[in-house]
TrEMBL record:
Listed Pfam families: adh_short_C2
InterPro entries tied to this protein: NAD(P)-bd_dom_sf, SDR_fam
Lineage, top ranks: unclassified sequences, metagenomes, ecological metagenomes
Protein name, as recorded: Unannotated protein
UniProt organism field: freshwater metagenome
Length: 74
């Protein structure tokens, strides 16, 4: 999304908000935090789980019938 919006984070978040429970796109550091936790001893009892670090995108469904990509290019 960053490439399509030409680095305009406000535009990216505005377009992404309707499709993410958090109302924004996550930062790479936030995804890295999930990975770091799962790779640590603190996650020693986590087995066979799916973790979606997607800001709630998968819970809301794929873009509901409104494609987001054209909005970024506008």
């Amino acid at each position: 999304m960053n490439m399509l919006s030409k680095g305009d984070r406000k535009k990216t978040d505005r377009v992404a908000a309707p499709f993410h429970l958090t109302g924004r796109v996550g930062d790479p550091e936030e995804v890295a935090n999930v990975i770091s936790f799962l790779a640590s001893d603190r996650a020693s009892v986590v087995t066979g789980a799916d973790w979606a670090a997607d800001g709630g995108y998968s819970a809301m469904g794929p873009e509901q019938a409104v494609p987001a990509i054209p909005l970024l290019e506008a």
